[in-house]
Amino acid sequence: MSATELINAPKSPYGGRSWEYAVAFADSLGQPPASINFLVRTLLSEGDKGGDAVGRDATMYLSRFLKSRAFKSPYFHAVSFYRTERLGADDDPFLARDFIEAFSCEEHALISGLIFVHRMAARRAESELVKEITDRMQRTLNLGWFIGKALKPVGPGMAMSVGAARWLGLLPIASHDPDGFRSYMSGLKRSDQAVSDERFETERWGCASVQVALIMLQRVGFGANRLIPLMRALTTTSFSNSVEPVEKVYRVAEIWLSYMLESRSAPSSPLQPAFYLGKDRINEISQRMQVASNSFASNWLSATGRDLCEATAPQLFCGEASHELAADNGEDDLLEVALAMEPS
Hints:
By secondary structure, the protein is an all-alpha fold. 62% of the residues lie in helices and 0% in strands. The protein is globular and about 55 Å long.
């Protein structure tokens, strides 16, 4: 998929000039290596064929990425937070194949793409600003996971995509205009706003951060069949307007994310029974999020290779897993790892 497909999408709420600014912000990160794009596209393609099991090609590439501690660390912490049941006792080795089996193709694609693009963007912005964005994005990712798990027609991968798109695009913006970003965040805090302010973004930077996020996701391998419905779902004001199946699912995730982030009394739009969360399930999600705030693993996106140790990941330091870890590349530069894996 080229950015042109996204920019020229029917029913796009954004004008051509705003896309020029969005592309420029995404360009400031540089082009992702082909290896990560290939991995994400392969995972999504395998998932679209109707199965959650990761196929041979994606397994080979994902396994090679997992030889880097810089990649393995956030992945392990994501597993230990989202798929706790996958981990055994502290002395039960967690092997490469266990990583592969831990998530669906779509979940693997999103987690892999986010780890990489987050690391690309974070190296260019001030650390305090990166932390502020990452904290908000991590919260919406985690909330998206729990909402998607609770709503089977939605699923964690699609709900997390909505959470990521709300904040991911601010990473290159903060690098370009740190003073403007600080002013922006101060305004959100003063108004106790838990979601982004598209009006401020467009007036200050000429585009919405969602546009930048969509370009970033496109460049790591997400296609028009996901990004165009995601764009529409994030910008429509009525659930009934979301008639396309994929768009409708994204819209459901957006409605529930906004409901919980903004502590609303009711969802912003009426929902069909299949997409409705009862009070008991909402309370359960709120409790999980509260517990998550005290968990290191809940901040998996920020985990680096240095965060892998026996205290945080005992299952990687025992038995056969310890031999796999000893053979891993200790280099903490994902860009170098990805460039070394360029498809032939």
